[in-house]
Specification:
The chain is 30% helix and 16% strand. The chain is an alpha/beta fold and 446 residues long. GO terms for molecular function: arylsulfatase activity.
Length: 446
Amino acid sequence: MIRTLIIALSVYTLLPALLSAADAISKPNIVLIMADDLGYGDLSCYGSQNCNTPHLDRLAANGIRFTDFHSSGAVCSPTRAGLLTGRYQQRAGIDGVVYANPKKNRHHGLQKNEITLAQCLQDAGYQTGMFGKWHLGYQRQYNPTFRGFQQFVGYVSGNVDYFAHLDGTGVFDWWHNAELNREEQGYVTHLINDHALEFIRQQQEKPFFVYIAHEAVHSPYQGPHDQPMRKEGGGDIKSAKRKDIANAYREMNTEMDKGIGQIVDVLKEVNLTEKTFIFFLSDNGANKNGSNGKLRGFKGSLWEGGHRVPAIACWPGRIPEGTVCDEPVISIDLMPTILELANAKIPAGHKLDGVSLVSLLKDRKSLVPRQIFWEYNGKSAMRQGHWKLVLNQTRKEPIELYDLTRDMSESKNLADNQPQRVQQMQSALAAWKSDVQKTATTQPEK
């Protein structure tokens, strides 16, 4: 009787630890990596002839490479808002760039009523860390450490000098959690990666979520051996030697690729490869200094070159290796996907616009047909199957319709030949705009 009681008490005492260990095994670690302004044709596994990216190529070979993946925005801040809320950025209150210039909207940011991916994962028992570009609010109240990330090292603006760590207005912008850190020096791409590596090595007992938001390949175009270009207070250093942009772009891409290889290697080193889900994407298409392959348009446009981006998923042993996914997918799908993988929940009544990709990733089951929408700077677009409607991208052709299966380069406008389809898609787009506007999070006045 006494022995039975002792055994029962022992099991009762150990039960929390046993449940915690079982929970850690069932919940995969999450590594979410976002490049900045990287185009559809900027990786060698997507056909690039200018940039060699062996580590991302290896990641794709060990997982799934997406050919029809889209950022929810055509520029930086909106896509990041959509990514971290699982909602169209128009609903989340950040439908355009949050600018460093105080004369514009520097006071805007991701409001507290928006529920982030990091918050949901932290509530589910994850350790959370973010390293790199935030761009969802400059004021201290918007710092990532108040939006679900327990650790943050990086910058809050749209871009910084890779060495001087100054934003576009000459303001110093390098943070450790919610405090500026002027002591840390180094090339931004290396610093982001080094802190991410350190974070991963520190995680032993609980599952973790790390968001690695690279500055590469966004301007200013500085390779790892260049010099600072910006000076505090604003302006450029006139004596700074400017490198050929094409070479700098290639070097920036190379350094990011090397760092991602190090992330994969450290997961292997700490025996977490098969316990970790990795997803890589870009926040929008390339500008004219990069490559969008055969796609039409660049960053800021709602043609495919503005939002169809490279994307790779890898989870050895859990999702198929060396496969290509042609399903249309959008970045707001990542939050519901990761929450399902982590067995994490969102607050009751809170609406997500994305859909989970778990069955697509694990079992290659097709997604339920749906409509996908974009809007930026007075332009709008939508997908319905292989059809795409683009409105107000140009004055010459304010209504454009393309069959992307036959015309991924959007070279043949079929709007005049498909008036009923155009009308139906315009109605759907108008209904979507009305819906997100009714429930949109508002930003404070100046």
